[in-house]
Amino acid sequence: MQTLRPDAVAVAAADVTPRTQPQPRRVSVSMARAPRRESDPKKRVVVTGMGVVSVFGNDAGAFYDRLLAGDSGAGHIDRFDPAGFTARFAAQIRGFSSEGHIDGESDRRLDDCQRYALVAARKALESAGLALGSTAMDNIDLERAGVVVGSGIGGVKEFAAGVESLVTKGPSKVSPFTVPLAIPNMASALVAIDAGIGFLGPNYSVSAAGATGSHCIHSAADQIRLGRADVMLAGGAEAAIAPVALGGLAALGALSRRNADPETASRPWDRDRDGFVLGEGAGVLVMESLEHAMRRGAPVLVEYLGGAASCDAYHVTNPSPDGYAASLCIKRSLEDAGVAPEEVNYINANATSSRAGDLAELKALKRVFKDTSLIKMNATKSMIGHCLGAAGGLEAIATIKAITTGWVHPTINQFNPDPAVDQFDTVRDVKQRHYVNVGISNSFGFGGHNSVVVFAPFKR
């Protein structure tokens, strides 16, 4: 196994391919006509509810309205003193309230990562007609209901507090909650434990950096397709706007340094992009078998068609510059969905505003989609920043809202578009009307983790 030296990580921070890394593979992805789509109502998976916690609030409709308006959620950090950091801004949630969703004692104890997950899960259940205490919720078979909600880092503030206590006060003063509230799986566990939910079915989390949320969504869908569950809560949560995470990402050179103008710092596909803006939040879906949803008369929003995962197997932070493994992930997601590339006309791109990452994704997309004339592609991260483990959940919700509203949100801050993006309509600055036939949401993360999910309007 290759040993990653500190100097190799430093090189990655500059978005330069280290000489010790393998050269890009010159391989093309062939696209055969996709197989037929699933017809068995027990295996067809639909989305019946959505819940968000975001820099734009905790309502999915209001969240998307702010995206359609092209608002920026980035601003100067005031949660702690960022003086001395090279990046002193983020898409920070302000005024978050869990009132009515988390009891006071738990609210004071939990890390924000878990608080965000719990509120987003409750919101998703409510929108699916499964409010706690309702007849519909009481009729759910808890043994066939599960949760897959992941986090890229977990309770980073709780863990940092434990380390501080250890260093300044000694081991006897480390909180017994340090480990339980720091581990990434605890958001998923606490959602199931939450009073009134009590889902007893499959429960785990996927931790795959920026690919986490999408990974959790297609993993949860597979539980339904395999007949192991009727209903699943799926998505991601993250609360990494904390000194240790900000400092670590800044040390990598991953973050934008536009401290004088935070609102325009996230610039996907712009020639002058200089890194991403750190964000936070949670995005959770209620996913059900079509049979289960129809039996209870659930409000079906969209159909989940498929998903896939792959790994660049290339570098600890840099994407493989040839985009091959990412294109493989897109190809496999379409095959899993029973969709041909020609059917896709909307892409919610990963597009972090990274110099190397944006180019690698474009190369991946060009391998798969030979004709992009009918495709609209946008970057949610241009407004809410990179929410790490929560990104896939929040961007899946943006994709679903594009399908259900017929509007695709703009990509902001494209002042000088990179020539590499010239084949795509990136919905520059202003929302556009667009009927989405099939939409995909891309999520790619550190470690070369790739995950893609596919949605379409629900048709009986």
Automatic annotation (TrEMBL):
Positions of region (Disordered): 1-41
Bias-annotated ranges (Low complexity): 7-16
Localization annotation: Plastid, Chloroplast
PROSITE patterns associated with the record: KS3_2 (PS52004)
One Gene Ontology term of the molecular function aspect: 3-oxoacyl-[acyl-carrier-protein] synthase activity
SMART domains reported in the protein's UniProt record: PKS_KS
GO cellular component, as recorded: chloroplast
Protein family (similarity comment): Belongs to the thiolase-like superfamily. Beta-ketoacyl-ACP synthases family.
Self-association state and partner proteins as the record states: Homodimer.
Protein name, entry field: 3-oxoacyl-[acyl-carrier-protein] synthase
